[in-house]
Design brief:
Helix content is 45%, strand content 15%. Helix 3 links the parallel strand 2 and strand 3.
């Protein structure tokens, strides 16, 4: 069964600006990242401790390295949104 309204909403949600995914160290977050890529909704950029993120085998996804501290990762993400480098947090 096709969900035409849902598919239309998904199509309209596509954006050229990257979407920031902050501190993506849990399975539900990573599932969402892969779903975003699969649906081509946006380009996710992962912000957090690069070493830990790279252990998750995420080939081809940009990572912005921060110390292993969610508050510092949040501050970096906010800075990138203010600079216009990201669509939303």
């Amino acid at each position: 069964m096709k969900y035409q309204l849902l598919e239309k909403m998904i199509e309209e949600a596509k954006n050229d600006l990257p979407l920031e995914v902050m501190y993506p160290l849990s399975a539900p977050v990573l599932e969402t990242v892969f779903d975003l890529i699969k649906r081509e909704l946006c380009t996710p950029i992962l912000i957090g401790p690069k070493k830990e993120i790279e252990e998750l085998s995420l080939d081809g996804i940009q990572i912005v390295d921060t110390p292993k501290d969610p508050i510092l990762a949040t501050k970096k993400a906010i800075e990138m949104v203010k600079e216009g480098k990201l669509a939303v947090l």
